[in-house]
Design a protein that fits this description.
6-stranded parallel beta sheet; 436 residues; single chain; 17% strand; alpha/beta; 7-stranded parallel beta sheet
Length: 436
C-alpha cells in the first residue's frame, strides 16, 4: 500500500504524536508498505531516510516551538496524486488534518483518523475556547473520517459521548520497548550523564519526562516536593523536556524555595531519551490529560517504578502495588514517592511485572493492527459507511480554512474560496489536480 500520514507535528519536535507517527512509519515500512509523512516544514529538521513531504509553515501563534502548515499549491496537489495513495491517515484535526481530509474527498481515497489529544483539557491555550467547543470540533472532524482510531478505551468512550458515530477501533500506540531497557546502556555512561548535571551516582532522582505544559500538572509535583525533601534532603527533581509552561515552573520553584533541587535538562533528541530515563529512581506524573500515557510505558520498560495520578488512560497498564503506584491525593503522592526512594532496591518483582505490562505496547502489534484496519477499509468500504453525512457537510465550514494560499508558476496570489458548502473546496482541489 501507498500510505499518507498527515500530521501537524513531527521530529525534531518531541511529543507523543510525533513518536506515534514515527513508530507507525517504521512498522508499516517493515511490513512492505510505502509511507509518506506530510508535515509542516521545520528549519531544524535534519534529513532522514523517511519519505517526509514538508509543507510551507510558520511558527504556531500560541506555542512558538510548533509549526503550522500554510501553503497548499496546485503543484503539491498534483505531486500527491502521482503518489497513488491508497489510504490517508490523519493525525490532527487542524492544518494538515484538514488538508488530508480535502485530498481524501477530492481523490476518493479512504481516510482514517487517530484522535491523539483530549482538547477539552487544552482550551486554556485559545481565548474564548470552551470545552463544549473543543468537543464539537472533535465530533465534527471524527465523523468526517471513514474510520477512527482511539488509543485507549477512555478516548473511545469520550468520543462516543461527544456524538462520534463512525466506526471506531481501540489501538494503543506502540513503542519500541527494547530501546528503553537498562541493559542497553553502560553504567559509566549513566554515571557520566548524572555528573554532567551535578548528580552523584547515588543521588535519588525523581524523574519527569515530556512536554512542559499547564495540563501536565507538574506544578502539583513541585508543590508536593518540599514534603519529600524534608524526608530525603539529597533528592532531586529532573525534568526532561521543554514547553510553554517552563518559565512558570522555574518561577514556582524559586517561590517554593526548591530551585536548587530542581534540574531542567531541556528537550532532548528522540534517540537520546532512552539514556535520560536511566537517570531516574522513580518516574512521576500528576497529569490526567493523557490519552494513553506512553511515557509511563517507556519508564516501565526502563525498569523505573512509576508513581502516577489515578486515571482511566492507564487502566490495565499500572496496577497499584504490582506494576507501579497510583495516587489520588497529595498525601498519597508524597508517601508513595518517599516509599519508593527509601526502598528502591526492593522492587525487582515490580520491575519485572511492569516490563511485562509495558510490552503490550509493542510497536509490532501497533503496526499490524493499523495495517489490518487499512486493508479492511480498502477491501470493504461499504461496511464503514463511507458517504459524507449531512451532519458533516452542514458543519464543515468550521473546519475548512477561509483562505487557501496558492503558488502558481512564479506568481503568488491568494484564492478566496466560498465555504458553503465544503464541496466548493473539494471541486477546487479537483480542478487543480486535473490542471484546469
Amino acid at each position: 500500500m501507498n500510505i499518507g500520514l498527515f500530521t501537524d507535528t513531527y521530529f525534531p519536535q518531541i511529543n507523543g504524536v510525533a513518536t506515534s507517527v514515527h513508530m507507525l512509519t517504521q512498522e508499516l515500512t517493515k511490513l512492505g508498505h510505502n509511507v509518506y509523512i506530510f508535515t509542516p516544514s521545520d528549519p531544524k529538521r535534519k534529513k532522514t531516510g523517511e519519505n517526509i513531504i514538508s509543507m510551507k509553515s510558520m511558527p504556531c501563534f500560541f506555542i512558538k516551538t510548533y509549526r503550522i502548515g500554510l501553503l497548499y499549491s496546485p503543484q503539491k496537489l498534483i505531486d500527491i496524486k502521482h503518489l497513488n495513495l491508497d489510504i490517508i491517515h490523519t493525525q490532527t484535526e487542524f492544518s494538515l488534518g484538514t488538508f488530508g481530509k480535502i485530498i481524501s474527498k477530492a481523490l476518493g481515497i479512504p481516510m482514517v483518523h487517530t484522535y491523539h489529544t483530549m482538547y477539552e483539557d487544552y482550551v486554556h491555550y485559545i481565548a474564548g475556547m470552551t470545552p463544549a467547543m473543543a468537543q464539537s470540533i472533535s465530533r465534527i472532524f471524527c465523523n468526517s473520517a471513514d474510520a477512527v482510531i482511539a488509543p485507549t478505551q477512555k478516548v473511545y468512550d469520550s468520543l462516543r459521548s461527544y456524538g462520534v458515530y463512525k466506526n471506531m477501533s481501540v489501538i494503543p500506540t506502540g513503542i519500541n520497548t527494547e530501546r528503553f531497557h537498562s541493559s542497553n546502556y553502560k553504567r559509566e555512561d549513566v554515571v557520566a550523564l548524572r555528573k554532567s548535571y551535578g548528580l552523584s551516582k547515588d543521588t535519588p532522582v525523581i524523574l519527569i519526562v515530556g512536554r512542559i505544559a499547564m495540563e501536565k500538572s507538574i506544578d502539583f509535583i513541585f508543590n508536593s516536593a518540599s514534603e519529600i525533601f524534608k524526608n530525603i534532603p539529597d533528592a532531586k527533581i529532573v525534568v526532561v523536556g521543554d514547553g510553554p509552561y517552563k518559565k512558570n515552573l522555574e518561577e514556582l520553584s524559586q517561590k517554593l524555595g526548591i530551585s536548587s533541587s530542581v534540574i531542567f535538562t531541556g528537550a532532548k533528541p528522540w534517540k537520546e531519551v532512552g539514556l535520560y530515563y536511566q537517570l531516574g529512581d522513580v518516574f512521576v506524573s500528576a497529569s490526567v490529560s493523557e490519552t494513553q500515557g506512553l511515557t509511563f510505558a517507556e519508564a516501565m520498560s526502563a525498569s523505573i517504578p512509576v508513581v502516577a495520578k489515578n486515571d482511566r488512560c492507564i487502566n490495565g497498564l499500572i496496577e497499584d502495588g504490582k506494576t507501579g503506584f497510583l495516587f489520588d491525593t497529595k498525601e498519597e503522592f508524597v508517601n508513595k514517592v518517599i516509599y519508593v526512594l527509601k526502598n528502591k532496591d526492593t522492587f525487582e518483582q515490580l520491575k519485572k511485572d511492569a516490563l511485562i505490562s509495558a510490552s503490550r505496547f509493542s510497536s509490532e502489534s501497533f503496526g499490524r493492527s493499523v495495517e489490518s484496519l487499512y486493508k479492511t477499509l480498502i477491501e470493504n468500504p461499504e461496511s464503514f459507511g463511507r458517504a459524507i453525512s449531512k451532519h458533516y457537510t452542514h458543519h464543515s465550514k468550521h473546519l475548512i480554512p477561509k483562505k487557501i494560499h496558492i503558488i502558481k508558476g512564479s506568481k503568488k496570489y491568494i484564492k478566496r474560496i466560498a465555504i458553503k458548502p465544503a464541496g466548493a473546496v473539494i471541486k477546487y482541489v479537483k480542478r487543480n489536480i486535473r490542471g484546469e
